[in-house]
Amino acid sequence: MTLAVFTARQIEIMEASSKRIHQFGIQELTIKNLAADLNLSEAALYRHFKSKNEILSGVLSYFIQEMNAQVSLIKNDTNLTPPIALKKIFDYLFNSFVKNPALVSVIFSEGIFQYNPDLTEKIKAMLGLMHSNISSIVLEGQANKTFISTVGVNSIAIMVMGSMRMVVLKWKLSNHQFNLKKEGKKILEDLLIMITK
Questions:
Q1: Distance CA 170, CA 71 (A)
Q2: CA-to-CA distance for 181 and 167, rounded, in angstroms?
Q3: Which of 29, 35, 1, 4 is nearest to 17 (CA)?
Q4: Residue 160 CB-density burial (10 A; 0-12 exposed, 13-18 middle, 19+ buried)
Q5: Angle between helices 153-173 and 117-143 (to 10 degrees)
């Protein structure tokens, strides 16, 4: 994966975009509104990004890079057992979402990606990266007899990812009315009971 390099101003624009989507919905993310939010002219904003979709693509690229770096550190820590590695990955994700709930609004706005191949590819890449990392941890857990091997690696990875996605979506739709970290941790622990020998 090629790393994108963003300027401080681009990061500021991407953060403002995420906040606007979170507060008002994707339909209110326009260059005009964003320029007003940032007290910039539209021309100045266009010097940093060519379009709204390029901004959204940047938001996703930035998150994917951060996520990949953190997940790789966790996955490559040989002192962690597979269950602890999974817990640490989701702790990191839940902390990221609680710290920046606007990010959830971007990632979970399927309408944004429906007609844009570049954005669709970014989401697919993010899901693929998570699936690959979780599958690798599950495979290690099956190899060292921590996890059951009667259920396939792919099925377990999808169950874990789907459950965590459901918790985050529920949290978003409830307007953050419950403790995401606590709820997510409980569900992951229950899943681990089901797949641990």
A1: 23
A2: 10
A3: 29
A4: buried
A5: 130
Token match 């403790």: residue?
Answer: 179
Quote the DSSP letter at residue 26: G
Q: Which two tokens stand for residue 70?
A: 């953190």
Residue 102 near residue 19 (C-beta atoms within 8 A): yes
The pLDDT score that the predictor gives to residue 3 is 60
Backbone angles phi, psi at 196, to 5 degrees: -95, 140
- Distances in Å between the Cα of 94 and the Cα atoms of 91, 98, 164 are 5, 6, 9
Which of 163, 168, 8, 122 is CA-nearest to residue 16?
Answer: 8
Handedness of CA 93, 160, 136, 103 (dihedral sign): negative
Residue 168's nearest CA partner among 82, 86, 74, 105 is 105
Percent helix, strand, coil in the chain, to 5, is 75, 0, 25
> In this structure, are residues 74 and 92 in contact, taking their beta carbons and an 8 Å threshold?
yes
- Per-residue pLDDT of the chain (197 residues), as tens digits, is 556 788 999 999 998 988 888 888 777 889 999 999 999 999 999 999 998 889 888 888 888 899 999 999 999 999 999 999 999 999 999 999 998 888 887 887 766 667 788 888 888 888 999 999 999 999 999 999 999 999 999 999 999 999 999 999 999 999 899 999 999 999 999 999 999 98
